Amino acid sequence: MTFSIVARDAGSGELGVATHSRHLAVGATVPWARAGVGAIATQALAEPAHGPSALDLLAADASATESLSVVLASDPLSEFRQVGVVDSEGRAAVHTGARCIAFAEHAVGQDHVALANIASRPGLADAMSAAFADTTGSLAQQLVASLGAGEQHGGDLRGRQSAALLVVSGNREDPIWSTRADLRVDDHGNPIAELARLLDLQEVNRYLSLGLTHLFAGHVAEANDALEIALQLAPADAEVNLWNRLARETGSTVAHPDGEETDPRWAELRRRIEETGVLDAISRPTTDQG
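Structure (tokenized):
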């Protein structure tokens, strides 16, 4: 009782799923993805085991079509299921069981598949597919835009409740941060809009985390670049502002060039950070202030 899109970004190789339902916590059941392997949505009368089972088959070099065929072959309720698979090469396979509740449909496009059941009117999957193809930006942004198009087309006949986004790296050997996005809105009056808001917040956090990684590694210029982007995205965020000031002070001959913290909580955090000595461990020129 859901509409979803499963896709691969041809440039980065990232794989992901976005989903929406008039059902509590759709993110706990529908979306599945594994870095460099594939992405899957399992819905309608959902069988969550189809997600990891199909991913295991993809990891063993089965194609999207082969993995889907295998998991459905032993499923006595397959005619009530809806499953979409995209593998690491962008090949898509989809099954919409003949006994899924109308309107149940799917649309396959380049590197993606959209699927829906209990849609308020026909054409929802086509609308999602078109929006995915027409949207620029990251894979996560394309996926959320596709959900929005599905909602604008009429969405779930029963209304709105939950949404989720899962995006992973296209590199199977990616050692860190292979999950690019894992966001869930479990119960909300406008879950797709809330998912989009969380994605914006995650982008801020991504650049903040990147900046801190560079800063603690002693790469001050790179840290400043990443933290500046975070600041542009969230100019009022107190923590982003604090780390920007600390990064600019690193390597400066002027103590606290952008002023002291005015909020006592952030002033206390500054003190605790400085107390660890982590900033002193970063190469910092010192001169006699005389």
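The longest strand covers residues 2-8. The chain has eight helices and ten strands.
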